[in-house]
Amino acid sequence: MQGAEGVKKVLNVRMLGELKVTLDGEEVELPGGIYSKTMRLFLLLLCYGERGVTRNNILELLYGDGEYADESGSLRVASYRLKKQLTEAGILWDKGRISKKGTFMLEQNGLEVRLDVENFQGTVEKALKEEDRGRKKELLKQACHMYTGEFLTALSAEMWVAGKQVRYQNMYFQCMRQYLDMLEEDEEYGDMLQEARTVVQMYPYEEWYIGELDALIGMERWKEAQETYQRRTKTMMDQMGVRPSKELEDRNARINNKMKGSAKNLEEIREELEEAEADSGAYYCSYQSFVGTYHYEMRRIERTGESFYLSLCSLTEKKEQKNSAMDKETFEAAVEELGDAIRHSLRRTDLYTRYGKNQYLMLLVGLKQEDCPIISSRIEDNFEKHMGRDRFQIRQFTTSASPNDARREKETRTTLKFNGRGFF
Fold it and tell me: How many CA atoms lie within 13 A of 323 on its CB side?
């Protein structure tokens, strides 16, 4: 239907990923920003479309937090401002309306609204119902490429937004799983690798790591697969405190078997074994490598009699800082800084790994028990150079690495606090 001026207008709204509104191809920036009540009301009206949304529903969705004493009055103000802004932006003409008899909707003759989420959902539904394999594969590809990010990410705290986020994410995952399976069946490993890495960027989950490795295995890019496995499992341990599942470990075993069975001369193998960069600090490795090294060293000390100590270092906020609502990024940066402090405090012959979200595990070589507090003090000093001593607390527990010695020795416990130089 044509508008009052005889012009057909097309409003395109992208809600997956970064929000973008265009009118006839020209980007529209509505005043107030995405967190304003007017913009959130506008997004609600778009999502509910022609069926509209009732006044009571809007009051519950936008004003249910009790922030406003006069919720009905606030809604009237927001709807008035929204209509004014939409008219000034050219989305509505003077006779356009956004409410009628208690129901809110965009009511404008000649305005065609196109939402990326509706297009995405329609394509997903067609793809999942399609029986022709070739057509199904193409529709799955289209659906996966339409999903460019989570639904209205900036408004994740809104209940109505969070519900839709989960729904669209599940649709995307369902399509991506089927699409990767079909690419693997057709041995289109290049496309499979590209798709897997795209989803990994948005959702660094083990399921998609496996898809990435399967693509590299299919292309027989064994060295790259090995490096990818090590990088992904390090991310899992460092950022999420999660160890690889048996399914992921099976891929690693397959990769290692192929690497071992390749026809290479000894010089090439030696070059592969060399460290990429010389570093004066302690040696960092994955938890799996740490376990293997520990087993080896425990066998070796049966012959050499060397002393080894196992030390667990944990970082927490001080009790008096608990109400400061520290964000995850700040705390993660502090944990990374603790890792750097450990690396520079230990010797090259010592070993350490990330054990949990806020913990590091260390294997200290050739030390005596009285040396452990010195190591602890050194870690504290290096940490506080960059992070100070006011917000964080380090706790370090040290015991003999030998199981036999550990039974005989009393565990040494050292607690470091940044409000004093002593140990208590």
Answer: 1
CB of 109 closer than 8 Å to CB of 7: no
Taking the C-alpha atoms of residue 108 and residue 88, their distance in angstroms, rounded to an integer, is: 14
The token pair at 369 is: 């028990």
- Give the contacts of 182 (CB within 8 A, at least 6 positions apart): 133, 136, 137, 140
Share of the chain above pLDDT 90, in %: 46
- Is the pLDDT reported for residue 2 higher than 60? no
Question: For residue range 365-406, what is the model confidence (pLDDT) as tens digits?
Answer: 888 888 888 999 999 999 998 887 778 889 999 888 776 555
Which is nearest to 88 in space by CA: 4, 5, 23, 30? 30
Cα 132 to Cα 3, 179, 281, 399, 422, distances in angstroms:
41, 14, 59, 63, 73
Q: What is the DSSP string of 295-326?
A: HHHHHHHHHH---EEEEEEEEEE-GGGGGG--
Q: What is the mean pLDDT of residues 283-294?
A: 89
Terminal Cα distance for the chain, rounded: 79
Q: Is the pLDDT of residue 98 over 70?
A: yes
Q: What is the secondary structure of 44-80 as a DSSP string?
A: HHHHHGGG-EEHHHHHHHHHTTS--S-HHHHHHHHHH
Answer yes or no: is pLDDT of 364 > 70. Answer: yes
Mean pLDDT of 270-282: 73
Output the average pLDDT for the chain.
85
What is the reported pLDDT for 263?
55
CA dihedral 274, 276, 279, 285 (to 10 degrees): -80
Find the angle CA(397)-CA(400)-CA(406) to the nearest 5 degrees. 105
16 in Cβ contact with 22 (< 8 Å): no
Residues 6+ apart with CB under 8 A from 387: 334, 337
Q: How far apart are CA 45 and CA 53, in angstroms?
A: 7
User: Which long-range contacts link 363-366 to residues 24+ away (Cβ below 8 Å)?
Assistant: 363/290, 363/293, 363/294, 363/297, 363/308, 363/309, 363/310, 363/311, 363/401, 364/308, 364/309, 364/310, 364/311, 364/398, 364/401, 365/297, 365/306, 365/308, 366/306, 366/307, 366/308
CB-based contacts of 379: which residues, under 8 Å, 6+ apart? Answer: 313, 338, 341, 342, 345, 394, 396, 416
Within 10 angstroms of residue 390's Cβ, the number of other Cβ atoms is: 11
CA distances from 236 to 232, 266, 288, 382 (A): 6, 33, 12, 26
